[in-house]
Specification:
Layout (H helix, E strand, L loop, with lengths): L7 H9 L2 H12 L13 H7 L4 H9 L24 E5 H6 L5 H4 L6 E4 L11 E3 L2 E2 L4 E3 L2 E2 L11 E8 L3 H4 L6 E7 L7 E9 L3 E13 L2 E13 L7 E13 L5 E14 L5 E2 L6 E2 L30 E18 L2 E25 L7 E32 L2 E29 L2 E6 L9 H7 L7 E18 L3 E17 L9 E16 L5 E12 L29 E14 L4 E18 L5 E19 L4 E16 L16 E11 L3 E10 L2 E2 L9 E2 L2 E13 L2 E8 L7 E4 L3 E4 L4 E9 L1
Parallel strand pairs: 2-35, 5-8, 15-18
Antiparallel strand pairs: 1-7, 2-3, 3-4, 5-6, 7-8, 9-10, 9-37, 10-11, 11-12, 12-13, 13-16, 14-36, 16-17, 17-18, 18-19, 19-20, 19-21, 21-22, 22-23, 23-24, 24-25, 25-26, 26-27, 27-28, 28-29, 29-30, 30-33, 31-32, 33-34, 34-37, 35-36
């Protein structure tokens, strides 16, 4: 199938070419680009238009680099990755499948500079991550539209995942301090195919997926993806995940100048949440049974197995339902002028009871004192989030004199709404070294774990927040001759947020309104067609839209608006400088990139000891990043990245944090995944991953540090026929026990060694 953004005249000639069209479609499917919503690569245009007979040869070359996608899905980017002056990693479907990735977290192991955060206390978990040391919980997108919901994303309906590093508010809007993530859905295309996978493995893993695409008429097709997954967490007692998903896509007008697509995706989860093990606190003294903990402050507890579960089996649960309804209309006025409008309504509901372990403070006037007794801090939460969004992009290619332009202009509108209710209390007490011990509760009524489910007090009235956003933007890439380009973009956002107290109460109610500009600019030098050297600058902003915490990461996070000092604060501002180079080598099958970057957040929110929040902070992250993706030889593929970062707090209202590194900003991260194919039937894969030590907080009393670690994955697959293959994935080959995600008061161990055997069947 020819790319839908290709010129209409080219598509008509393509459809007439018969056998060449069928060949091209098959090869594009193999490359994972069946329905990429981006223009066909520029380098194909002259070969197709001027020398049609060479078209199959060009596609064969591209099909040999399924680890190296050349384009982004977003209509806001007109150029191939080689010519975009920014660090961008695109993880294609081939890498996701070969690594046996069953979650977005698994997928993101294929890019450096990303770390995971643990849910703090009863805070919602889901895909809670940081990019280059800055929280990116609200910087996740689906098909170019904001995907603001707290859930655990599954790649069953994903074509590729795009990670854009550095601030990019001019492209995406609020947030994006360290970068943003866009997942690209599988969409209907003009082929007939059926693919199913069945996976079984250790830790009670059972998973099945189905991908059916059917051509209904010359220009209409329907695609259905389904998934069921259930598994325990390797190396963690009592922790499990169960989910199912449906992805449906109906496309009409495919292969014509006007195309319309309806997409629906649903993901439903039923999990046992994992709040891990407690850190040893540093704000007190240890006595009695806790005397041996004196030398382990701000560390993991000594002598405790990482398998240990401090939650309440039969009580803790997490149920999440998430739906996305999307309509996309595309029209090509001419080969050089295209319009795309996308409309989405999404909703997500979360209901959970979780237990966060904390060493119990038994001190009185003498101050904080600890033994080995733990509070089981039970927290119940219900959260409802829904969003309506509309995005319109107009893309135009034209010339003014000798200057070539690739112009994108557009508008966005978002209405985001969230209701949040939670209650917390101490359910029972237990011992750090004896989780079976249930002592009488501290300040919470139920006498034992068995009574909690029925006697847990009702949730209070929910807090509620609305965020209205209207945006307009303009981007242009100007090409001067063969060697020089200038890329620039400007965006305007009007934002209005309201937050109300429980049940709409006026107590603590506040609102904020901001009119913000963000921009980016870059100078690009191309010494040869296959190489790029660039210097770029970009900005981003984080408005104060969270009255409860002042963190700006969500609309509401609690029942009460308890930090009124957040109201009226100016937005946080971020600026990044990046000097980089990109090269396509080995007949353009292998891409090499390198970039120096410096990101500084000024007006950073900071809260002093009295609880007053201001924007008097200053945070800095700088470093260098390398990547290598594609084919080294015909049979040898690689997907690798390495990042070195230095971070620190330059200014804060809490003096003790000045000079400390930022939380979840590891100084080094490394990932490698490589495969080698023998005799076109058997493929071997191996992938080490490294995460350096990182802190969990930048508190004045000292940061908690999670040690660095290495993990290794391996894979072997065999293709028995064109319709049947088997793949064995082994995860964490050496069974490394490590801290996978960190929070302020606890950490969650990474999964232990596991294996999955997957059968792929085509019909």
């Amino acid at each position: 199938m020819l790319n839908q953004n290709a010129p209409s005249s080219l598509r008509r000639r393509f459809l007439k070419s018969g056998s060449e069209a069928l060949s091209l479609t098959s090869l594009l499917c193999a490359a994972g680009g069946v329905h990429a919503q981006s223009a066909a690569p520029d380098k194909l245009k002259p070969q197709i238009e001027e020398i049609p007979t060479e078209m199959p040869e060009v596609v064969v070359e591209a099909a040999g680099s399924v680890y190296n996608p050349s384009r982004l899905q977003s209509a806001k980017y007109t150029e191939p990755l080689l010519d975009i002056p920014q660090t961008i990693t695109v993880i294609p479907k081939a890498v996701i499948e070969d690594r046996g990735a069953f979650s977005l977290r698994d997928v993101l192991k294929n890019t450096p500079g990303i770390s995971m955060q643990a849910g703090e206390g009863g805070a919602v978990s889901g895909d809670n991550l940081s990019i280059r040391g800055f929280s990116a919980r609200s910087d996740v997108y689906l098909d170019g539209l904001r995907d603001y919901a707290n859930y655990n994303r599954d790649p069953f309906n994903t074509e590729q995942v795009e990670i854009t590093k550095g601030p990019s508010s001019s492209t995406t809007g609020r947030g994006s301090t360290g970068g943003s993530i866009n997942t690209v859905s599988k969409m209907a295309n003009l082929t007939d195919s059926i693919l199913t996978t069945l996976s079984v493995g250790t830790s009670n893993l059972y998973r099945g997926t189905l991908d059916v695409n059917e051509k209904l008429s010359a220009h209409t097709a329907f695609r259905l993806n389904g998934m069921y997954h259930t598994a325990d967490t390797p190396g963690r007692d009592n922790v499990s995940m169960e989910r199912y998903g449906i992805g449906a896509s109906l496309g009409t007008g495919l292969g014509t100048d006007t195309r319309f697509t309806l997409n629906y995706q649903r993901l439903e989860e039923s999990n046992i949440p994992d709040y891990g093990l407690p850190w040893i606190p540093n704000n007190g003294t240890f006595s009695g049974s806790g005397a041996g903990l004196t030398n382990y402050v701000n560390q993991a507890p000594p002598g405790v197995s990482f398998n240990t579960f401090y939650g309440l089996p039969g009580v803790d649960y997490e149920k999440i339902q998430t739906d996305h309804f999307t309509a996309i209309l595309e029209h090509d006025f001419t080969p050089d002028i295209r319009l795309r409008n996308a409309t989405r309504y999404s909703r997500s509901h979360r209901d959970s009871v979780s237990t966060a372990p904390r060493l119990r403070d038994v001190g009185a006037a003498a101050g904080s004192q600890y033994t080995t007794i733990l509070n089981r801090q039970l927290q119940r939460r219900q959260q409802f989030t829904d969003m309506f969004g509309n995005q319109t992009n107009l893309v135009a290619s034209f010339e003014t004199g000798k200057i070539k332009h690739a112009l994108v202009t557009g508008m966005e509108f978002y209405l985001e709404h969230q209701q949040n209710a939670n209650v917390a209390g101490i359910s029972t007490l237990t011992d750090l070294y004896n989780t079976g011990l249930n002592l009488p509760p501290g300040a919470f009524p139920p006498a034992n774990a068995q009574d909690i489910a029925s006697t847990y007090p009702g949730l209070p009235l929910a807090t509620e927040a609305y965020l209205y956003t209207c945006s307009a933007y303009l981007f242009d890439t100007l090409k001067f001759g063969k060697h020089w380009e200038v890329s620039a973009g400007l965006r305007y956002d009007h934002m209005y947020a309201t937050v109300s107290g429980p049940g709409g109460s006026s107590v603590g109610r506040f609102s904020n309104s901001d009119d913000l500009f963000s921009y980016k600019a870059a100078l690009i030098y191309k010494p040869v067609r296959q190489g790029t050297i660039y210097f770029g600058y970009g900005t981003s902003f984080n408005p104060t839209i969270d009255g409860a915490s002042g963190a700006g990461l969500g609309l509401t996070t609690g029942n009460t608006v308890n930090n009124a000092s957040s109201a009226g604060l100016n937005p946080e501002q971020t600026a990044t400088y990046e000097l980089g180079t990109k090269w396509d080598v080995a007949k353009e099958r292998l891409s090499l990139t390198a970039a120096l970057f410096r990101t500084e957040k000024t007006n950073a929110r900071t809260t002093d000891a009295s609880g007053i929040t201001t924007v008097g902070g200053d945070q800095l992250v700088q470093g260098i990043e390398f990547s290598m993706t594609g084919n080294i030889t015909k049979n040898w593929q690689i997907f690798a990245g390495y990042a070195v970062m230095e971070s620190k707090t330059k200014a804060s209202t809490t003096a003790g944090t000045v000079g400390q590194s930022l939380s979840n900003a590891p100084p080094q991260t490394f990932n490698l995944w490589t495969t080698y194919t023998l005799l076109e039937k058997t493929q071997f894969g191996f992938g080490p991953t490294y995460m350096a030590s990182r802190t969990s907080s930048d508190s004045a009393t000292g940061a908690r540090t999670a040690p660095g670690y290495w993990t290794m994955d391996a894979m072997i697959s065999h293709k028995f026929s064109d319709k049947f293959s088997l793949r064995l994935n082994i995860y964490n080959l050496a069974n490394e026990r490590y801290i996978g995600s960190v929070g302020g008061g606890q950490f969650v161990p990474g999964p232990g060694r596991s294996a999955a055997l997957t059968a792929s069947i085509k019909f």
